[in-house]
Amino acid sequence: MATDPQPQIVLEVTAINKKFNHEAVITDFSFRMSQGERLLLFAPSGAGKTTLLRILSGLLAADSGSYAYPTGAELHIVFQEPRLFPYLTVDENIRLPLKSPHFASKTNALEKLAGWYKLVGLDGYQDDYPHTLSGGMKRKVSLLRALVTLPELLVLDEPFQSLDKDSREAFVHSIFPEIPNLSVLFTSHDILDVEIIATSILLIKSPKLQNPIIISSAEFVRSFTN
Description:
It contains seven helices and nine strands. It is of the alpha/beta class. The model has no long low-confidence stretch (mean pLDDT 92).
């Protein structure tokens, strides 16, 4: 009898350690992430979540340990702050990564962009500048800017702050499925994100990143409701 193939590992983190001023922020931190997974890194505020994401994106060096992308997937990160270019319109900000020679020969989602604008409530704002947008709208623009490149591995730091439930569901249930082999690692403190987005939870109960426990999103939600 044939068995279903095991999902490929897209991210493997092994014994990462990081200190600031001799104080441990991340201690012997290891986990694996499978293709198609939407993994929530759930930990207390100040535990080092953003530090870990910066390490995995190559913006900060770990003191020791390693990480690898076995499938060769490129990591695309969206920070807590939208980080839009103020002199570019909404549409220009979203299309900006595609001007890089790195993406010139790669498939992108430009043909889907008009539909995405409608799905997330940005239709009609394409020619507006960031200073005219609300915080939630800026966040939508930063998310679309990452998604238009059709990433295989997306890292999101508190991605859906300021977004209502309908907008979150539009991204997760309508846009994410249009991106082949998409895997998502994200942080959040919002139980709504667990219910809508996460397929599994990387749970840290200590005040610093150590001893992670992987549980299903359903198990996590039950722990809050029981």
